[in-house]
Design a protein that fits this description.
This protein has 475 residues and is an alpha/beta fold. It has 18 helices and 19 strands. The strands form five sheets. The chain has a seven-stranded mixed beta sheet, with helices on both faces. Strands 3-4-5-17 form a four-stranded mixed beta sheet. A four-stranded antiparallel beta sheet has the order 15-16-19-18, covered by helices on one side.
Length: 475
């Protein structure tokens, strides 16, 4: 910064202290957990301390984090799917630096910059049945846009969603969130209705009421990694269109290559959603961006005249940094054949994990597509294992999965997550750039943890004692 002295023509600038981010982090980075406890969500550091995830990472690259001692940690979460290209991909990083150096006249509100049009053009090339794009800043904004556009285009107020769905946490998207724990205390919600995923009869019953604007559905639900049954999306689309309602595909997590196709709905022939929501991976891990892709007639209805030109907008939507990151991300996807890699490595990953099922009583299922994989645990048959299993279940469903997640981190430096509250499912959504070496590392570590969990040693007992105590304390 500078300070000015004097008045008029005699004013001169006196250099002041420059802002030095690196120095600030060096000085106060060690306070990270205290700062979070004092000023942000105080439950996050508490949770991290409880399960031993309170690490201090110094930097990250690709599919790995590194601590001060140089130890690497394999990332099987990719920031909940944001880092599809891994962290700090050089092409995306260079594009973000370049767009800032260009000093573009961004977000003037009264011009048309080229980057949004170029990114929309590139995105739509992957969905030839769709025509236009609205850019916001996140997945939940993309969903909010789709909900508003569907309601306006159809003139109807009710949107159907699937049980156990997750579409975001702002009020509109929360209204189509199938997990009650997220909704509790934030009502009243919008007048939307849950139907079981895959239940065409339930969908038909609701449509007969004549007030449904759309069905919003994740082709593979993030909570539990549950895929829509084969043929369901196409049949649902036909039902919806027969009743003049729309199909919204929420591809915020499944899209941009995650499942081995550019969008997950493309696994099923003939499915052409009216609106598609995308985000997360499109950012390249640098600048938040959300996108709602839709058919021409829907956009024409919403933006029906010049009076309605700003009827739906976002202050930071289409900003140059986000558009540059999105364009660079799609370039890397094509140039490095990232989608094909997700399909090939994902198939290998699920195959390696499925081979373990006969070996472990508590390994109930391995499912998913591409590099979106769910590992589900279930009740063992043998009495010795059943006793420990039931003790964990009595305290809180989902503790066995957490018992696997914790040693994967503490002993093997692999970051994973339980797929949802009260679920015995681990979800793997690693960067789409991983290869066989990362698959080997995970499978070897997972095998060691499962060996111990099935051997009657202290793994379950020690973990159970700690977590049961914590669960009881939080009741």
């Amino acid at each position: 910064m500078t300070t000015e002295t004097g008045t008029g023509a005699g004013t001169e600038s006196v250099p002041g202290a420059e802002f030095d981010l690196e120095a600030l982090l060096a000085e106060r980075g060690a306070e990270r957990y205290r700062l979070h406890s004092e000023y942000l969500n105080h439950q996050l550091p508490r949770m991290l301390h409880t399960i031993g995830f309170d690490k201090v990472y110094e930097h990250a690259k690709g599919a790995y984090f590194y601590d001060a001692e140089g130890n690497d940690y394999l990332d099987m979460l990719a920031g909940f799917g944001i880092f599809a290209l891994g962290r700090h991909h050089p092409v995306v990083r260079r594009a973000v630096h370049q767009v800032m150096d260009l000093e573009l006249a961004d977000l003037t509100r009264f011009d048309c910059q080229p980057l949004p049009g170029l990114l929309a053009e590139k995105l739509l090339s992957h969905t030839p049945h769709l025509d236009r794009v609205f850019f916001g800043n996140s997945g939940t904004e993309a969903v909010e846009t789709a909900l508003k556009f569907a309601r306006y285009a159809t003139g109807r107020g009710r949107v159907l969603y699937a049980d156990h769905a997750f579409h975001g946490l702002t009020t509109g998207s929360l209204s189509v969130n199938g997990e009650g724990g997220f909704r509790e205390g934030f009502g009243p919600m919008l007048p939307d209705t849950a139907v079981p995923l895959g239940d065409l009869e339930a969908l038909a019953r609701e449509l007969k009421r004549g007030d449904v604007a759309a069905l919003i559905v994740e082709p593979i639900q993030g909570k539990g990694v549950l895929a829509a049954p084969p043929g369901y999306l196409r049949a649902a689309q036909e039902l919806l269109h027969r009743h003049k309602a729309l199909l919204i595909a929420d591809e915020v997590q499944t899209g941009i290559g995650r499942t081995g196709d550019f969008f997950a709905y493309q696994h099923e022939a003939g499915v052409e959603p009216d609106l598609v929501c995308a985000a997360k991976a499109l950012s390249g891990g640098y600048v938040p961006v959300g996108a709602t892709l839709g058919k021409e007639w829907i956009f024409e209805k919403v933006y029906s005249s010049m009076d309605r030109v700003l009827v739906h907008s976002a202050s930071f939507g289409s900003n140059a940094q986000a558009m540059a990151a999105g364009l660079a991300t799609l370039h890397v996807m094509e140039d490095e054949q990232v989608v094909a890699n997700a399909r090939r490595v994902g198939d290998l990953f699920r195959e390696r994990l499925t081979e373990l099922k006969p070996k472990y009583e508590m390994l109930a299922d391995v499912r998913g597509r591409g590099l979106m994989i769910g590992i589900e645990f279930g009740r063992p048959q043998s009495l010795k294992l059943r006793t420990g299993w039931m003790a964990l279940q009595a305290a809180r469903k989902g503790l066995f999965a957490q018992m696997v997640v914790v040693p994967l981190m503490q002993r093997h430096r692999i970051l994973t997550q339980v797929s949802g509250d009260h679920l015995e499912v681990i979800k793997l959504i690693p960067p789409l750039t991983i290869g066989e070496a990362e698959v080997d590392r995970f499978v070897d570590a997972f095998t060691e943890v499962m060996d111990e969990a099935h051997s009657g040693t202290g793994l379950m007992r020690d973990f159970g004692r700690t977590l049961i105590k914590q669960a009881v304390a939080n009741r």
